[in-house]
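Dear colleague,

Thank you for sharing your sequence with our group. We've completed the structure prediction you requested, and as agreed, I am returning the results in plain text so they can be pasted directly into your records. Please verify that the sequence below matches your submission; if there's any discrepancy, let me know and we will rerun it promptly.
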Amino acid sequence: TVPTLAKKELAPGESTVLEINFNSKKFHGNVMKLVHIYSNDPDKPVVDITLHADVFSPLLIDPPTQRTGFSQSPIGQRLTNQVTFTATELDKLEITAGKSRKGLFDIKTINSFEGNPKVAVLEVSIPEDMPPGRQRDNVRVKTNVEEMPFVDIELSCWVVRPLSLSHEKVNFRYKSKLTQKIRL
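Please find the predicted structure tokens below.
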């Protein structure tokens, strides 16, 4: 919710137009937003404007952030998360997705999830051979919803080793003392 004023400084008795833009992309149903207007008016230094909207979305996505991820996943384990798509007006939702952009994650789509033709699921898995470290990728999901023909889902994970060393190899050559500090 972003307000913009046509004119920021007003003389006594003067007025201006306040334009408020509301991005409803990640909302559905009844939404209430507050816009705070701050001024140097001693009687009313703050004025609140309340916006109410009934947002209709032809496709509900859970999680609504359109992101899924895995935090501190052990190396070599296959973990799976789901992103659920629900059609609000179509009788049958169909989704398809290819590989993730970088090919880091395994992607699978399930239409008519649990027998419901309005629900589809995107399964995102960390492959067992995912390299350690933080990984980011995204996948484009195509839908048969005319108003939302595709949805981009952000993917992330942090694959960790059971024990990591600050130096994987230690070279004692050319050292006057044979000691080395290693952080675990």
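Summary note from our side: Residues 30 and 54 are 4 Å apart (CA to CA).

Kind regards,
the structure core
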